[in-house]
Write a structure and sequence with these properties.
Blueprint lengths: L63 E6 L5 H14 L2 E6 L5 E3 L5 E3 L2 E2 L10 E4 L5 H6 L2 H12 L3 E5 L2 H6 L30 E4 L2 E4 L5 H13 L1 H10 L11 E4 L12 E6 L5 H13 L3 E6 L5 E3 L5 E3 L2 E2 L10 E4 L3 H8 L2 H12 L3 E5 L3 H6 L28 E4 L2 E4 L5 H13 L1 H11 L7
Parallel strand pairs: 1-2, 1-6, 2-5, 6-7, 7-9, 10-18, 11-12, 11-16, 12-15, 16-17, 17-19
Antiparallel strand pairs: 3-4, 4-14, 8-9, 13-14, 18-19
Helix pairs in contact: 1-5, 1-7, 5-6, 7-11, 11-12
Length: about 450
């Protein structure tokens, strides 16, 4: 695992029916590839299949992973685990420990599980990975079905892991930390057995892997990938995610620096999403900006509130884009994902909102493949910007290839994927000041840049 050591970084019950239903056509998740959403959605519903493509008869069966979620689960941790493990080729079942599949996470993101935890009790998993968050970790702890499944996993010497509050709040009461070195979020570290507690970002001990928080979630996920699939696959996924090492010259560059003051009210941020949007970008933006006390509105450009992101994560938006077409926002941020960006670019309402944003001199930005949308609409004229390496050439003369985040006046762009944490914290710093950004980063257990 030597390469991993180089890598840096309240809830309400949703009562309405899930916007996701099963129909005759399906989308299959393809590891290490981009999801292509359906051209049409029969009866305004999204067809879902979370099974990977059929494997050849002589190929080993896919690795099966159980990822439970509950009200108050930390959404960044859950979604990073889902995304990274599926991209590596694992068959990940997201299971709700609540009576319903739709769950509101710690910062208000609405996620939809694949199954109820009761449907998983007779299955054998290669890995059980517990996201943290509060009260999410307590909800997992109080679920008898999950406790039985996880205790059996440990007894039979199969892999299991937990992050953030989950090692102390969930696994400790279940008696699963005995004679194992463990770590967890600094706020819960005092609950761990003193002799076995380790202040490290990642700790692997006798089949149990633990980690500290959202800021270490990529490292946590990649450590699990390495244990399931080997170092080469973990390296491949890390490179795809644009993970950085201590030797990388990670930088934020700012041109034409101006103040982003929006008055005394909490900044209003619009995040439009579509089928195929990159879930780790969507959820990281929502989580970090809401932690900073911005008023974040997630709007679907589809006909339904529910969208299926690039690696099959099911996210429910707050509103349809048509419901907010007359609204003004201090900031509009476009998440990436090749298929998602294409669908965002076709939204006439979003085009109108972006044009008005530019005309009014308000702030806007994009990550990953979506800066190309801004360029196509003429919104990057005479601006410096960056994008995912595969889309950087579309930005023409304004492209910046040696920074993970680029700010030019009131326009902000980023490479995307794993760099979206830096991107979101850069937005927090511009809107609220460096002190607020550093405070949020500390809560994430994310190493905030000194400069």
């Amino acid at each position: 695992m030597s390469f991993l050591l180089l890598l840096l970084p309240q809830p309400s019950t949703a009562t309405r029916l899930s916007p996701f239903t099963i129909s005759t056509s399906t989308i299959s998740l393809k590891p290490l590839s981009t999801l292509s959403p359906p051209r049409s959605i029969p009866n305004s519903t999204l067809s879902i299949s979370t099974s990977p493509p059929p494997t050849p008869t002589n190929a080993p069966p896919p690795k099966k992973v159980l990822l439970p979620i509950g009200f108050g689960t930390e959404e960044m941790e859950a979604v990073i685990l889902i995304h990274v493990l599926r991209r590596a080729g694992a068959h990940v079942t997201v299971a709700s420990v609540e009576p319903q599949l739709q769950v509101e996470a710690a910062s208000g993101t609405k996620l939809v599980a694949d199954a109820s935890i009761s449907e998983c009790s007779d299955q054998i998993f290669d890995l059980i990975a517990l996201p943290g968050g509060m009260p999410g970790s307590a909800r997992l702890r109080d679920c008898d079905a999950l406790r039985i499944i996880t205790c059996k996993q440990a007894e039979e010497n199969r892999l299991f892991g937990a992050i953030n509050a989950a090692p102390a709040v969930t696994l400790l009461p279940w008696g699963l930390l005995k004679r194992k070195k463990i770590t967890c979020h600094p706020a819960f570290f005092h609950k761990l057995p003193t002799f076995w507690a380790v202040k490290s970002n990642i700790q692997v001990s006798n089949g149990l892997t633990t980690s500290r928080g959202p800021g270490t979630a990529y490292m946590f996920a990649l450590t699990l990938v390495e244990q399931l699939f080997g170092e080469s696959i973990a390296r491949e996924v890390a490179e795809f995610l644009l993970m950085r090492t201590d030797d990388d010259n990670v930088s934020k560059k700012e041109f034409n620096e101006i103040d982003w003051s929006v008055g005394h009210h909490p900044p209003s941020v619009l995040i439009p999403i579509a089928h195929g949007s990159e879930e780790i970008e969507v959820v990281t933006l929502i989580d970090i900006l809401r932690r900073a006390k911005a008023n974040v509105v997630v709007a679907s450009v589809e006909k339904t509130l529910g969208v299926m992101a690039s690696q099959g994560t099911k996210i429910v938006a707050d509103k349809l884009i048509s419901d907010i077409q007359e609204s003004a926002h201090d900031l509009i941020i476009l998440p990436g994902g090749t298929a998602g960006a294409e669908r965002l670019s076709k939204s006439r309402i979003l085009k109108k909102l972006l044009k008005e944003q530019n005309s009014a001199g308000r702030i806007y930005g994009a990550v990953c493949s979506s800066p190309a949308i801004l360029h196509k609409q003429g919104l990057l004229k005479d601006k410096k910007a960056t994008a995912h390496p595969s889309a950087l050439n579309k930005l023409k003369d304004g492209a910046v290839n040696d920074a993970v985040v680029v700010i030019d006046g009131k326009v902000i762009t980023s490479e995307g994927l794993a760099t979206v944490t830096d991107f979101a914290l850069a937005i927090v710093s511009k809107l609220f000041g460096n002190g607020r950004a550093r405070s949020v980063a500390e809560g994430l257990v994310f190493e905030y840049p000194r400069k």
